[in-house]
Amino acid sequence: MAELPTAYAVNEANPEWLNKGDNAWQLTAATVVGLQTIPGAIILYGSIVKKKWAINSAFMALYAFAAVLVCWVGWAFQMSFGDEMVFFWGRPDFALDQKYLLAQGFAGLYPRATLVFFQFVFAAITVVLVAGALLGRMNFQAWMLFVPLWLTFSYTVGAFSVWSPKGFLFEAGVMDFAGGYVIHLASGVAGFTAAYWVGPRTSRDRERFPPNNILLMLAGAGLLWMGWSGFNGGAPYAANIDASLAILNTHVCTATSLLVWLFLDIFFFEKPSIIGAVQGMITGLVVITPAAGWAAIIMGILSGSIPWYTMMVLHRKISFLKNVDDTMAVFHTHAIAGSLGGILTGFFAEPRLNRLFFGDDPRYIGLAYALKNNQTAAGFRQMGIQFAGIAFIVGLNVVVTSAVCLLIRIIVPLRLSEEEMEIGDDAVHGEEAYALWGDGEKFEIAQRNRMFDAEEDLQSKSVQMTDRF
């Protein structure tokens, strides 16, 4: 019979500071967020593009998820949440150490191992969102280099500055509950900047780029929506009342945003668009992310209308926006929506909810409540800090993303060749998304063989008829 664990072992596995409920919820939330990428974004990207780009688009997300994890435990987590190297950046260090991982994390009543995994899935989906702007033309080898470089020199800076208790924007009072700045604004600006350097798709793809499977696209979008329960619900670092409010408000805002976008499409274009509804869903999720507070319906109305206006109206009028080929419109759905969410957070932040997350710090108050409570200076200060956070994340990602792209193109081409872009997956990966296999043949090859066989049969019958006469 195996020996029972010693009391020492039991105490080591269950230290006094460990809250099992919080730990279980945080691991669950992290897993749900991970499912947003694997398989959520894979399904969404692989189905929302042309058939010839299905594998390449899905593969970009799959590769990013794996590469980010290795970099994250190798050095990036410590750069995001470890010891300060400079006021906006952490010191690189190895996180996959037993003693380090078993100690209590900087937030929450659970070990660092839980925190490392939870923050990893946020980092991974951020890089995958950047990929959305580059689908259909980026050299896969260039993408393989882009992921670790951008994670190291851009994402870690934003995460440390805004989320780490030692970061200068965190200390200044920037409110970013679950990633409106660190994830969505960063990925939107970085994706748009990278799209500028990589260049556009072929003219044929830009003119017509229909989804190859709308039902699968909806399945991927649905995984994103439901996964946001872990995205915003895990942000309080505990299974508490704040998590409950965050989850409910997230879904209310998202549903409102989807409906507003849908009604605008019907009113102005006379047709309800399923792709438009998905865009409205995404902007609702993004705008509520830095807040997840009481103003969910108001934020949903604004998230369904302002990004709709920038995408459907302004984008067509501003030549610079038209010239940059942002495949998934991440500039509008993430950069614009993330900025909007940060601004609305500074306006609607309710003091009682702020205390649930920030404690008794009087600095955190939305302008609307500051005006009501005769704290006007504090309210305008918070709005100013929110705008400062936007400016920092935008500047950081324009500069770093440009530098990364310029460095990579010295090593390998950023773009695929014209021939590869015409053919797509088969030229780039030697595989096709919807190939039907029989006796080791692809559908197209088998089809050509059947046509050749049919022609031979006709010729044979013709010869037989001739011989008879």
Automatic annotation (TrEMBL):
Alphabetically ordered keywords of this record: Ammonia transport, Membrane, Transmembrane, Transmembrane helix, Transport
Regions crossing the membrane: 24-46, 58-77, 116-135, 142-163, 178-199, 211-231, 243-269, 281-309, 329-349, 387-412
Record-linked SUPFAM superfamilies: Ammonium transporter
Membrane topology field: Multi-pass membrane protein
GO cellular component: plasma membrane
Residue ranges of every copy of the Ammonium transporter AmtB-like domain listed in the record: 24-434
The keyword Transport is assigned to this record: yes
Protein's cellular compartments: Cell membrane; Membrane
Pfam families: Ammonium_transp (PF00909)
Major localisation: membrane
GO MF term set: ammonium channel activity
Known role: Involved in ammonium transport.
UniProt similarity note: Belongs to the ammonia transporter channel (TC 1.A.11.2) family.
Protein name: Ammonium transporter
Organism: Dioscorea zingiberensis
